[in-house]
């Protein structure tokens, strides 16, 4: 409805602004607090964005970003037309999905279980043990896999052969079919303790009176975890799930690269390792940037759709 | 976009957008001023007027005689880290150079090729680079941008190199960039014993002796010897976890390629050869099926172990140099520590005669130089002093020290003025030589007439083995891809060649691995494999390579 008094109508935006400005002044401390983070994000996340331009040109360091020849979508077409393109997408996507499906629920289950544990000492012991692998570097982790699972002399092969379960060398390291399992479950082992921290933090915020009431009503531990704890941390879970979905195509380069060999290459060549070999080692920076940009766009689409889905299902999205 | 999940109001978003735009504008300005600055710098480096004073490089460098620099100068020199080379900065040679020339070498070691490529793309060059293995693209871009100083004009200060290039036009051609000019001083070590044979094929003679067996000469005998090693594991000096035949699958060094040669199929570490200037594929040669069948049979019998497919370079070197040995047979460039005559273990073996009756072949390498192991960048203020330094290092004694190591430790001078190699392993880092990480001028004449290598007469050494066993098994002419500069193809062609190269060679590597490991059968799959190579663009790959070869053969003409 239009305001009948024209004088007031004309003043409104100005007054609104001054009121807002007043609020800013009132909370100036908070703004100062957020300023460094804001500057950081702008400087290191937004300013370098102009670099994506090299994805659309034949970038030569000598000519610089503004001087290199413009080739439009050539590098994208080049990537899409690669014979290995679909193989790369399939490997990357299936590995990312598998890692998400296996790696996402386990920290939640661990956190719920730890939260329900009676013994404080047991709880902190288990926490420490499950955190520890997080601090092992990927190189060392892959080294451990190679030593334990070595075909003839690895401890696993020796044990299985000794117990008569298998005979002959263990071919798990060179088997394309096993690559995904090795990749994902070693990741789960390494990350579940660390991943559960955020859920434990969320669980500590659960209202204790709910639990007390449930105990009075005769609920057992499992029921309390299922009907009280889980719904309480659901917003946290959804937020993290959305963020994780945004990273499905962003399968880490390091581990896949280290675990590759001639026999499992069919399953272990993912987008990032391919880009490393063809892009970075051969100074094909434009191609690398194009693939990287493609990757980010797909991840963004995934993130937005999962976010939308979460909203449709009545949960809070992240925006 | 997401700002850490914080709820942001419309106003704030506008504010942020405004700031981002400003920042991006700032970025643009920075970008512009940066390139402008570089353009200013790319003017040719001043060489000083010379004239009566004879001091060049802006009044610093003597045109002849020593010290090279009249007043002390410092040059930043880049070099690539090599795991087997130790700590370059501890080498004594830098100090020796400084004493003689007044040039202090400030060494910067780059830990890997990625860092080198990054250095090139940020144009943050040292004054001089020794071996750094940048990608061919990086080199050709830098040459195009005139970031690298051409050395043709500097040859007047480098008489040794000037003479070398004049008297070796074929080797000079390997060093030319597409514009027909030279952009660096090379590492030259044209030693037939070194370049003309890739790997020796070694067999564990101690085990043979213990089992009362002879050195195998045919593929059949080889198999039965390996079987004997396997069956006698744990007896005598054969360990329980014996690896009868060690290959590092798919690798140029220590790979399975010499076994293909036994069946008369020459593969120089890849599946492509160059015969009389024509690029040819061995990947689709049906003769390849026979050695693959043989390898599959060895694998099935446990004579090749699964580690062949998973071991990396570190594990390969550990396995072949293990003491006491755990391997029955392997291929290796170097004599392994426990050579037969010294430690009574390893003995060189001729390539095996196969049932198909073809002449067994062993692999050779190209007679070639490393064309740009001493490159001068345009930011180097003393190009003449640098060229004179390169020329000094081409003197015989300096070249001996650069390549082999310190006099007394690596070589000694004989009474008649020759250089005798000690053939000893040098452990002290101070005494080490740079080998192909530095430059040296050791041409054929030097090796024939001035360097004394007693290994030639010592049974079981690489040199001896070359004369007595391998020379007759070499292919009549080189079939290897000759060294060519980058930049002979245009950008699009180069990129296409890279993509094809990766797709085709990965496919061959994985498929052959599957055949050897018994996952698939070479006879059943061969036709499908050839068809797949076709669909991957083998024809185009061959044409592009041929185009590059043709362009290279026109260089310098």
From TrEMBL, chain A:
<keyword id="KW-0812">Transmembrane</keyword>
<keyword id="KW-0813">Transport</keyword>
<protein>
    <submittedName>
        <fullName>Sugar ABC transporter permease</fullName>
    </submittedName>
</protein>
<dbReference type="Pfam" id="PF00528">
    <property type="entry name" value="BPD_transp_1"/>
</dbReference>
<dbReference type="InterPro" id="IPR000515">
    <property type="entry name" value="MetI-like"/>
</dbReference>
<keyword id="KW-1133">Transmembrane helix</keyword>
<dbReference type="InterPro" id="IPR035906">
    <property type="entry name" value="MetI-like_sf"/>
</dbReference>
<feature type="transmembrane region" description="Helical">
    <location>
        <begin position="285"/>
        <end position="306"/>
    </location>
</feature>
<feature type="transmembrane region" description="Helical">
    <location>
        <begin position="135"/>
        <end position="160"/>
    </location>
</feature>
<keyword id="KW-0472">Membrane</keyword>
<feature type="transmembrane region" description="Helical">
    <location>
        <begin position="233"/>
        <end position="253"/>
    </location>
</feature>
<keyword id="KW-1003">Cell membrane</keyword>
<dbReference type="InterPro" id="IPR050809">
    <property type="entry name" value="UgpAE/MalFG_permease"/>
</dbReference>
<feature type="domain" description="ABC transmembrane type-1">
    <location>
        <begin position="89"/>
        <end position="306"/>
    </location>
</feature>
<feature type="transmembrane region" description="Helical">
    <location>
        <begin position="180"/>
        <end position="202"/>
    </location>
</feature>
<dbReference type="GO" id="GO:0055085">
    <property type="term" value="P:transmembrane transport"/>
</dbReference>
<feature type="transmembrane region" description="Helical">
    <location>
        <begin position="95"/>
        <end position="114"/>
    </location>
</feature>
<feature type="transmembrane region" description="Helical">
    <location>
        <begin position="28"/>
        <end position="56"/>
    </location>
</feature>
<dbReference type="GO" id="GO:0005886">
    <property type="term" value="C:plasma membrane"/>
</dbReference>
<comment type="similarity">
    <text>Belongs to the binding-protein-dependent transport system permease family.</text>
</comment>
């Amino acid at each position: 409805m239009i305001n009948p008094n024209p004088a007031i109508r004309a003043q409104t935006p100005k007054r609104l602004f001054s009121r807002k400005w007043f609020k800013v002044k009132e909370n100036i401390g908070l703004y100062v607090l957020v300023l460094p983070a804001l500057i950081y994000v702008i400087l290191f996340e937004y300013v370098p964005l102009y670099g994506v331009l090299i994805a659309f040109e034949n970038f030569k360091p000598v000519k610089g970003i503004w001087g290199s020849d413009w080739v439009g979508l050539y590098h994208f077409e080049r990537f899409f037309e690669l014979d290995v393109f679909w193989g790369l997408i399939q490997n990357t996507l299936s590995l990312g999905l598998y890692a998400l499906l296996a790696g996402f629920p386990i920290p939640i289950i661990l956190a719920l279980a730890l939260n329900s544990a009676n013994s404080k000492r047991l709880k902190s012991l288990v926490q420490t043990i499950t955190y520890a692998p997080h601090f092992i570097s990927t190189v060392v982790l892959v080294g451990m896999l190679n030593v334990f699972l070595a075909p003839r002399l690895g401890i696993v092969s020796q044990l299985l052969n000794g117990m008569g379960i298998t005979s002959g060398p263990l071919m798990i390291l060179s088997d394309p079919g096993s690559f995904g399992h090795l990749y994902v479950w070693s990741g789960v082992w390494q990350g579940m303790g660390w991943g559960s921290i955020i859920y434990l933090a969320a669980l500590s915020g659960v209202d204790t009176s709910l639990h007390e009431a449930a105990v009075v009503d005769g609920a057992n531990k499992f029921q309390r975890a299922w009907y009280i704890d889980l719904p309480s941390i659901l917003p946290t879970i959804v937020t993290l799930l959305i963020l994780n979905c945004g990273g499905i195509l962003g399968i880490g380069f390091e581990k896949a690269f280290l675990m590759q060999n001639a026999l499992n290459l069919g399953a272990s060549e993912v987008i990032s390792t391919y880009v490393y070999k063809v892009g970075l080692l051969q100074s094909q920076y434009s191609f690398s940037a194009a693939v990287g940009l493609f990757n980010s766009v797909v991840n963004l689409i995934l993130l937005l759709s999962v976010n939308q889905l979460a909203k449709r299902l009545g949960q809070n999205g992240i925006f | 976009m997401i700002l850490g999940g914080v709820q942001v109001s419309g106003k704030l978003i506008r504010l942020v957008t405004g700031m981002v735009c400003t920042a991006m504008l700032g970025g643009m300005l920075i970008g512009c001023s940066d390139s402008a600055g570089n353009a200013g710098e790319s003017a040719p480096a001043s060489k000083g007027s010379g004239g009566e004073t004879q001091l060049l490089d802006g009044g610093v460098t003597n045109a002849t005689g020593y010290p090279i620099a009249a007043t002390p100068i410092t040059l930043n020199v880049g070099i690539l880290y090599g795991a087997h080379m130790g700590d370059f900065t501890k080498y004594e040679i830098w100090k020796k150079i400084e004493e003689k020339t007044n040039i202090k070498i400030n060494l910067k070691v780059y830990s890997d090729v990625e860092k080198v490529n990054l250095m090139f793309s940020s144009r943050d060059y040292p004054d001089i680079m020794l071996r750094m293995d940048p990608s061919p693209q990086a080199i050709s871009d830098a040459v195009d941008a005139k970031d690298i100083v051409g050395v043709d004009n500097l040859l007047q200060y480098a008489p040794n190199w000037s003479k070398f290039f004049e008297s070796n036009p074929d080797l000079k051609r390997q060093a030319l960039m597409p514009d027909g000019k030279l952009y660096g001083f090379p590492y030259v070590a044209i030693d037939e014993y070194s370049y003309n044979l890739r790997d020796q094929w070694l067999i564990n003679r101690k085990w043979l002796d213990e089992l009362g067996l002879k050195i195998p000469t045919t593929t059949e005998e080889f198999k039965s010897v390996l079987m004997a090693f396997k069956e006698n594991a744990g007896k005598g000096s054969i360990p329980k976890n014996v690896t009868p035949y060690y290959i590092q699958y798919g690798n140029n060094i220590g790979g399975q390629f010499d076994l293909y040669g036994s069946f008369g199929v020459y593969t120089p570490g890849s599946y492509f050869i160059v015969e009389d200037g024509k690029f040819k594929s061995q990947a689709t040669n049906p003769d390849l099926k026979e050695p693959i069948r043989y390898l599959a049979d060895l694998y099935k019998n446990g004579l090749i172990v699964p580690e062949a497919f998973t071991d990396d370079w570190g594990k390969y070197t550990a396995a072949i140099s293990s003491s006491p040995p755990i391997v029955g047979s392997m291929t290796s460039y170097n004599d392994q520590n426990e050579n037969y005559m010294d430690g009574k273990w390893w003995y060189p073996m001729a390539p095996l005669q196969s049932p198909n009756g073809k002449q067994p072949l062993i692999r050779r390498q190209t007679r070639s130089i490393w064309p740009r192991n001493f490159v001068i960048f345009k930011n180097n203020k003393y190009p003449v002093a640098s060229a004179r330094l390169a020329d000094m290092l081409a003197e015989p004694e300096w070249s001996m020290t650069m390549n082999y190591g310190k006099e007394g430790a690596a070589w000694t001078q004989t009474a008649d003025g020759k250089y005798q190699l000690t053939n000893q392993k040098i452990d002290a880092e101070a005494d080490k030589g740079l080998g192909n990480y530095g430059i040296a001028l050791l041409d054929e004449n030097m090796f024939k007439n001035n360097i004394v290598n007693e290994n030639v007469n010592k049974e079981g050494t690489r040199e001896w083995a070359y004369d007595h066993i391998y020379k007759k098994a070499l292919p009549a002419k080189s079939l290897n891809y000759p060294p060519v500069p980058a930049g002979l193809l245009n950008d699009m062609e180069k990129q296409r060649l890279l993509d094809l190269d990766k797709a085709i060679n990965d496919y061959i590597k994985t498929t052959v691995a599957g055949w050897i490991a018994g996952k698939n059968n070479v006879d059943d799959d061969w036709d499908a494999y050839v068809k797949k190579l076709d669909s991957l663009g083998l024809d185009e790959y061959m044409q592009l390579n041929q185009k590059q070869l043709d362009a290279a053969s026109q260089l310098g003409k």
